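Progress narrative, work stream C.
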Amino acid sequence: MDHVVRVLETEDQFTVASEESVLMAAIRQGVQLLHDCTEGGCGTCRIRLMEGCVRYEEYPLALSPEDEEEGFALACQARPESDLLISTERPMEPCSAPERYTATIQSVRNVGRDVVHLTLALPGAEQLVYRPGQYLNVLLGDGNKRSFSMASVPNGKTVDLHIRRVRDGHFTAGQLPRLGPGDRLDVELPHGLFCCRKEDFRPLLMVATGTGLAPIKSILESLMDDPDCPPVSLYWGMRTEDDLYLHDEIQSWAERLCDFQYVPVLSRPGPGWQGRQGYVQEVAAEDIGDFSEHAIYMCGSPKMISSARKLFVENGANPGFIYADAFNFQHTLVPAE
């Protein structure tokens, strides 16, 4: 049986067919709803049910039972069981529409045991506007693509990437080792909805594992020297001390961010490590305790993000102020770098 969905803020109306999700029906009929991963992992498509009810074929990672009790749903997984009146998330700052560029490699350098720092020059991108935290697609020429978060703020000239080398990776093992300054790559950007929500006016907790640091670095650089920058805490989880490829640079950020706290956390520390160890989300919970006043940004392994979301909500975090990089969920669901 078909059901009608009405959007409170825009007065848009569309029909959802039997077994179709709210999001897929909206996309099919040209109705704009915020979304990213489409797999229930990021929470970007979060809506509030003002009237009606929905069901899920599989319970989505990014929706807690507490969220559901408060009337929230994830449009990408929700199947209506009645007509719906929904309220959508607030809009974000505008950015450029995704566009294809032929990028020129400016530099390639190893910054860690298995991480490559790639700087791309973007001729013709002087007017490009992207939100710090977004990602780009590298187009491989055979119909495949690889997605990497941008680790730099928009400047109309260059983009930095942190690329983890993957054994047998189609791009990172096959093409990346042969690239050097002057070589070209076809890229498409910007993509994604992971970005800073300055209107939250809350202390920021940034939690990353691995190269999930890249979009968080972009966000934090956009806040440097900003008189309205809120207090910032960054917890970065890695295996060993050698994996902390930006450790020294991050420590210098305290000079340009408000009340900045940086806590590296190692899961497999060596005998000389004097810092914190264990799981990064558990260390953050141990330090902060009550997350009710924080806006939380997470990027890294899906296992960490799922565990952290549950832990933080149990300790007072408002799910409406938890943001996760959906790109990582996509990369877990399909073979990628």
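Work stream C, second folded protein:
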Amino acid sequence: MEITTALWSFALVVGLLTLTPGLDTALVLRTSALGRRHRAWGVVLGIQTGTLIWGALTSLGVTALLTASHVAYETLRWAGAAYLLWMGGRMIVDTWRGRAEGAAGSDGAAGDDGLALAGKDTVAGGWQQGTLTNLLNPKVGVFYVAVLPQFIPAGAPHFTMGLLLTSVHILLGLVWSLALISFARVLRTWLQQPRARRVLDRVTGTVVAAFGLRLALSD
């Protein structure tokens, strides 16, 4: 397999994976739709940082431990499930807390901060959330262990080629995230309404918690 052929083939596989609605899409869309554009880009950069780390570790052969060691995989799986359940549960609980605070306030503005949950609109905060979400998902590591080596041509340097393939995945992720953030701007007017923001947080929180539960119950 030629390097060019490997890159295009890998781009097709990870492109379809990127377009499939999932946890990353939900986090980016929700954060951006709430008007926290800096934090949304932080989430995007964090997710891609995690992808880069998984790709680099796979290229070095380190993440093969996830498939060789049951204990290593189980530890990371339960840590990831607990984090996602906590994050999703917090989103849902904060919508009720914010609603109560808003009702107690004179103009309902008190509930806005409670609904924001995404935290301050900073790139650093979003980056931390995106990185943790990606690195605590062992299925990303297993995917790279299973798929990445298949696209490394015979005779090509594993580490360099692995990083090149990972860069293709990151580039596609950035392009898709740009589309999501641009689309989310259309929703901002609707999301100025507290009720709409509560609905978005509850839906996203449910999706995140569902991913955590699925990870916990997965074999």
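Residues 3-214 form one domain. No further action is required on this item.
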